[in-house]
Structures are given as C-alpha cells and as structure tokens.
Amino acid sequence: MKIGKIDLGDKPLLLAPMENVTDISFRYVCKKYGAAMMFTEFISSDGLIRDAAGSLNKLVIYDYERPIGMQVYGHIPEAIVESALRMEEAGPDVIDINFGCPVNKIAKRGAGSGMMREPDKMVEITRRVVEAVKLPVTVKTRLGWDENSKIIVELAERLQDVGISALTIHGRTRSQMYKGDADWTLIGEVKNNPRMHIPIIGNGDIKTPQDAKNAFEKYGVDGIMIGRASYGHPWIFRDIRHYLDTGELLPDMSVAERVDLAKEHLAKSVEVKGERTGILEMRRHFSCYFKCLDNFKETRLKLVTLTDIDELYKTLDYIKETWG
Questions:
Q1: With 90 as the cut, is the pLDDT of residue 240 above it?
Q2: Which of 29, 93, 123, 155 places its Cα 20 to 30 Å from the Cα of 265?
Q3: pLDDT > 90? residue 4
Q4: In sequence order, which residues have a C-beta less than 8 Å from that of residue 137 and are 6 or more positions away?
C-alpha cells in the first residue's frame, strides 16, 4: 500500500491519532512493536494559528518515527489551510484532516465528525488543503452523521476527486460515538467501488489478530488503523503482523515483559516531557498495562499517585516479583 510515494508494504497496520494518548512516548513503543505508520495527537487549527503551547508541542516529531502523519481539525477553512502549511514546515510525511472525531466539544461546533453534516464544506476544505501543501493529504472520517445519513460511499468519491492520497473510514456514525459495533460493510463498499483507486484504510473494533485478518479478507481494505485497542496494548501491532504472516498466535505478553515495557515507556516519557509531567502523563498507561492483574487495587493506587520516579521503579519491580 502506498500513500503518495510512501510505501507501507502489504496490509499495513497504522496507529490512529488519539488525544492524550499518541504522544511521543506512546508512539515510541508502538513503533517498537511494529506500527507501520503513526499519527500525532490531533492538532487544533485554532490553537496552532494562535501559537498555543499545547498545539505547538504536538509538532515535535523524530526521524525514527517515520513515516508519520500530523492530523489537523477545525471548522474554519482558512485556519485549517494555514495550520496545514505550518505542519508542513514541521516535516511530517503526511497531512491528515480529521473529519471523524465525535466528541461533543468538537463535533457540535462543526469540526471533526460535525463536518459530516456539511459535506460540501468538507470537500472544499480538503481541496484547499491539497492545493496548498506539497505533502500527501489524507482524510479520516466516519460513515455519516447518523443512521439516516450514511453518505460515505458518495463522499469518498468526492474526496478522492479533489486529490487526497488515502482515506481512513471509521465504521460508525457520529451519533454512535464509540458505542455499538463498527459496521465494516460500507467500508467494504467504498473499497470495492470501481471508481475508487486510492488506498482505503479501515478503522473500528480491531481488537485481535483474528479481527484484522477478517477485515482484510472479507472487506478488502488496503490497511487497518488501530486506535483504542492499542491503549495499554501497544504490542498489538506485533501480534497482528505475526498472525497475518504466519497464521500463528503469539502468547500474551507476560507480566515481567509488561513491567519492562512500562519502565521503558516511563523513561521515554520523562526524557521528552521532564520528570513531573512525564510521570503524570504515564498514569493512564500504567493502569492499562496491568489491568489484567487480580488483587491489584492497592498497587494500582500507588502507580497513579506516586510522584517520585525511584519509588515508581520500585513499585514496578514489586509487580514483577509478585505477579510475574
């Protein structure tokens, strides 16, 4: 599968952009475990053109992360175009436009999946970004606004016609948020539309290697994007890749291996964000790495309240000794 001139190989697995999750340290571990392409946290066009620190910080990328995309969201066309140009200066491989985020504070002001109610505006914004930047432009979106407005098949053609290099489709409507099951039938319909010639990437409910294999075989997608299932489980990319290549399931990661990974993740977080912030932002990950453990409440509480890095490492060693 290629996005522009970027060759991601056969049946690539991509890391979805997730706010407060896909920061530098999390991308570091996902890359280690085989993500073929990753995306930054999504970046507010309003924040970026105002030089907001939170948005500017998301422009930091490293060569070892390549190929990597930056994703922009917003509802004002001029701001999105200006932001795309500023992102291009930061040196990503792809500019992605977020027309898929369903959260209220974004969608209800017409950004993210809120744009599904204004497909003409969505297409016009995309056209303007494609014309403004030299990098490949991709789009991530949903099936439609609600059950009665699943417009993705026609919309995909229109987005392709204004020059995008790939399209990622989440198999839910905005109204569904993340509830219910993702519907891959329309994703498959887009992929099998004879008018479509750009890569189609499917997203939604890929939780196991078997899910991924079924999505590739049944719906014919070119790639799969994995979001929530990678949270606390970044080795999912390795497990799926191994299964697709060999037909064999790898054993689940041991507690000792999880501890070693948590230490590595913590070290990277502290390296790039400083000790205080690095520790605070690891708390959400610690809980997920060890959610499989029984009788873990007291130890979990320590992981999400300790502020001393040496004590954190001691607690991680205790987990290995006790549950490993």
A1: yes
A2: 93
A3: yes
A4: 84, 94, 95, 96, 97, 126, 129, 130, 163, 164, 165
Mean pLDDT over residues 210-221, rounded?
A: 98
Q: Which residue has the tokens 């839910």?
A: 172
Whose structure tokens read 């030299």? 134
Q: Which of 29, 22, 20, 83 is nearest to 56 (CA)?
A: 83
CA–CA distances in Å: residue 195 to residues 149, 199, 216? 21, 12, 20
* CA separation for the pair 165, 188 (Å, rounded): 18
- Determine if the pTM surpasses 0.85: yes
**Are the C-beta atoms of 312 and 276 separated by less than 8 Å?**
no
pLDDT tens figures, 85-110: 999 999 999 999 999 888 888 888 88
Is the predicted pLDDT of residue 248 greater than 90, yes or no? yes
Which residues, including other chains, have CB under 8 Å from residue 297's CB and lie 6 or more apart? none
pLDDT value of position 180 = 86
The torsion angle over the Cα atoms of residues 121, 126, 132 and 137, rounded to 10 degrees, is 170
Please list the residues that pair with 103 across neighbouring strands: none
- Which are the catalytic amino acids? 101
Q: What dihedral angle (degrees, nearest 10) is formed by the CA atoms of 186, 192, 196, 197?
A: 130
Mean pLDDT value of segment 131-147: 95
Provide the CA 297 distance to its chain's centre, in angstroms: 29
Going along the chain from its start, the domains and CATH numbers come out as 2-246 (3.20.20.70), 255-323 (1.10.1200)
Average pLDDT, the chain: 95
Percent of the chain with pLDDT over 90: 85
Q: Is 242 exposed, middle or buried (0-12, 13-18, 19+ CB in 10 A)?
A: middle
